User: What shape does this take?
Amino acid sequence: MSGAKLVEKGNIIIATILLLFIIVCCTLVTWISNDNYTPKRVSNSASITEMNRDPLYDIVLTENNGYIIYSKKSGDGLNAFICLNKQSMRQKNIDIKSGDKDHSPVCLYKNSVIYVKPAKGGKQYDIYSFNIDRNKERTIVKNVYSNINVIDGWLYCTSLKKGLIRISLNSGKKQVVNKYLCNEYLGINSEKGEIYFDSFTNDYNFVGIKIKSRRLAIFLKSSIKEFSFLDSPKHDIDESILDHNYTYAKVVGIDQGNIWFYGINAQNGNREICKAVKKNGEWVTTKVINSPYIKFDFGVAFEKGKIYYTSSDKAEIHMYDTRTEKDATIYKKYGKCYGVYSASGDNLVIKEWDVDANGEPIDNNNNKHYYINNSGKVLYELN
Assistant: This one.
């Protein structure tokens, strides 16, 4: 074969390889761009995540259709879990010590309890799983922060070195979602398929992450956008969401693309629950509930378009339906006061106190925790 023919044949081979490479790249880009994944099944609601994390609450809880797992907090974490079977009503103790005085998060996936233990050095945590049926503990990941949640079978947590990571609880596969350091789970924006978290670096900001499972499968990261309701913007914040009327704000829920939060009105000092709606590319804030109708210090929970809160006299638990704009008293008892701890689905975790002559709560051994539905029926006593 002559030299000219060899060159021609070589050019054909090179052209064929380039064509195949272009086809593969185009196919891959199309495959990635058609990723319409929307997060759905979440182990813990935003308010349960807050209850489990915050040392001001004295109980942790997680649940699914089969079980309720709960524990009373102690000065150095959790000494054991109580596993309540929803069908048989039977209880059993899971004698595992977890958490510490600052953080004691817990999640439930299928028949496994997910929890943390302080890592060596004390600044970070190791995450473990305990199978209820097999009474078997295993290590999932080490040296991460305590902010955990399970979404569609993936455990989400934050690593100082890698950022937000997720670990499949079925296969054990680990993926780096984004190098950004995310804090607590806030909710899912179903309109955009985004998961919202508190910012790890700024208490007044939060981030929305569009999970692209196909990108993550080929080691590409998901994009994020950071937001704030406060007048303290950073270089990567979407400033259209800033609301200069509030000196403090906390997101309590995400629903139908709207962000529900409460904050202190900069004009009059009132504590208010508000809704932020995006119109024409800008966020517009509407006041929904303000003091003196709500007792913020005794908990606020948002779930499935409903806000649960304690009345100003602490004697009643109210439910405000954000879609019908109707407010109803769902639970009260003479001589008692209440706090809303969390909400999950159509159910709530509440705490009941005895009261003194002035109607203020008495911290004694008669305090009780209840798991009720939003019609006010007590389903379980968590004691």
Observations:
- The CA atoms of residues 80 and 95 lie 5 Å apart.
- The longest helix spans residues 3-33.
